[in-house]
Write a structure and sequence with these properties.
Number of domains: 2
CATH topology of the largest domain: Rossmann fold
CATH superfamily of the largest domain: Glycogen Phosphorylase B
Strand content: 15-25%
Number of strands: 13
Number of helices: 18
Structural class: alpha/beta
Helix content: 40-55%
Mean pLDDT: 93
Radius of gyration: 22 Å
CATH architecture of the largest domain: 3-Layer(aba) Sandwich
Strand order of the largest sheet: 3-2-1-4-5-6-7
Distance between the termini: 9 Å
Low-confidence stretches: 398-402
């Protein structure tokens, strides 16, 4: 049973939630759902991928003009103009379901949608609620808004537990894991070619960290960990830091130089070939202080790389400790370094964990599984009033098609 669905998100620049939508929406459209996306501030770099798939992406009507104004004026004016533009799009498109992604879209779009008549409303949270600490008033509004949602989704058990603690009723709460497209691993360049492209040979022990340079991603911990073990690592080692510099790059480079590991770090910036780089790596690392459920961890596992991750969000749900990699405490460079060193010095362990991680992704975290669960949820909400959300998500294939 298909229906019109309007997705609301801040923008479609490169990020975890944005990549999640770009990956899933074309496949949902193939199942007969009529999809469109409204972006609160601007379309973003990934919008063209959806548009090429026939999914319309709409930004506020005056967004292009406002982007020409001084920066200190852009954001407040964009946000204020976005509300009437969003209301207009809802009235124009008359979606059966409105699905909000990330706090900004949830607060602006969720509150505005209450004025637009009865709609099925879904909120997806994709991170832990640490962001609420900086905005306690907005956090209160967000928690009150939960009661107006027909479904509230988290992408890890940790996120779901927090939503439950915020007062979301169990029958309206759902866990829906991320999934990744395994076909992107089918025709990658050879390991040697990939390493050569970044100036490395096949003998170098290569680690990869895919995370934007944002303080909560824990790059400082990672660099300190590497500084503490550098003398014990193989003579030839390197780590590729892949991600957009959100303002901490200079500080991180200075720290690396002061600890004597600067020459081993490849600062590769934002790249579209992170998956390929993983396939050339020996170890994958994510040292975040907070996560929802990391696509980059799943991509590392799928690329057959042993992972070292911090025990936050859904990391330990993806990487089973001692089986697919090593899970370490957050904000603990010493333990993080020991885990990296353990894998660096044990090739057989790396191979065993890499194979186990690849199997786990194929069994539990594919894009096909993720899309089917979304389709189950949407179809059930369109047919039933107030269904049990987790049961709707987990419908068996034969029941979902009835």
């Amino acid at each position: 049973m298909a229906g019109k669905i309007l997705y609301v998100i801040g923008n479609l620049d490169v990020g975890g939630a944005e990549r999640h939508l770009v990956q899933n929406l074309p496949r949902l459209a193939e199942q007969g759902f009529k999809l469109s996306v409204y972006t609160i501030t601007h379309k973003g770099k990934l919008a063209s991928v959806l548009e090429d798939a026939g999914i319309e992406v709409v930004e506020p009507c005056c967004a292009s003009f406002l982007r020409g104004l001084p920066k200190f004026l852009q954001k407040p004016l964009l946000l204020s103009s976005s509300i009437p533009s969003f209301c207009y799009q809802v009235l124009l498109r008359r979606p059966s379901i409105i699905h909000f992604f990330l706090p900004e879209a949830y607060l602006l779009g969720g509150l505005s949608s209450l004025l637009l008549g009865r709609r099925i409303r879904i909120m997806s949270r994709r991170s832990l609620n640490r962001y609420q600490l900086k905005h306690p008033f907005l956090a209160k509004i967000e928690r009150r808004l939960h009661a107006k949602m027909d479904a509230v989704l988290g992408n890890s058990t940790a996120v779901v537990y927090e939503l439950q603690a915020e007062g979301v009723a169990l029958n309206r709460l759902g866990l829906l894991y991320n999934g990744i497209d395994l076909t992107q691993f089918d025709e990658l360049p050879t390991r040697n070619a990939l390493r050569k492209s970044i100036g490395l040979n096949d003998e170098t022990l290569l680690m990869v960290c895919v995370a934007n340079l944002i303080p909560y991603k824990g790059h400082v911990d990672l660099i300190r960990a590497l500084g503490g073990i550098s003398a014990q690592l193989p003579k030839s080692w390197a780590i590729a830091m892949v991600g957009r510099d959100a303002g901490t790059g200079e500080e991180l480079r200075g720290l690396a130089e002061s600890l004597g590991v600067g020459r081993h770090i490849l600062w590769l910036g934002e790249r579209s070939d992170a998956v390929a780089l993983y396939s050339a790596a020996d170890i994958g690392v994510l040292s975040s202080h907070q996560e929802g459920f990391s696509n980059s961890v799943l991509e590392g596992m799928a690329a057959k790389v042993a992972m070292v991750v911090t025990d936050v969000g859904g990391n330990a749900e993806a990487v089973l400790d001692g089986e697919c990699g090593i899970v370490v405490p957050v904000r603990n460079p010493e333990v993080l370094g020991k885990a990296i060193l353990t894998l660096a010095n044990d090739e057989e362990m790396r191979k065993r964990m890499a194979a186990a991680g690849s199997r786990r992704v194929k069994q539990h975290f594919t894009v096909a599984t993720c899309v089917n669960r979304y389709a189950n949820l949407y179809s059930t909400l369109l047919k039933e009033s107030r269904p049990h959300i987790q049961r709707a998500i987990d419908l068996a294939p034969e029941k979902a098609s009835e």
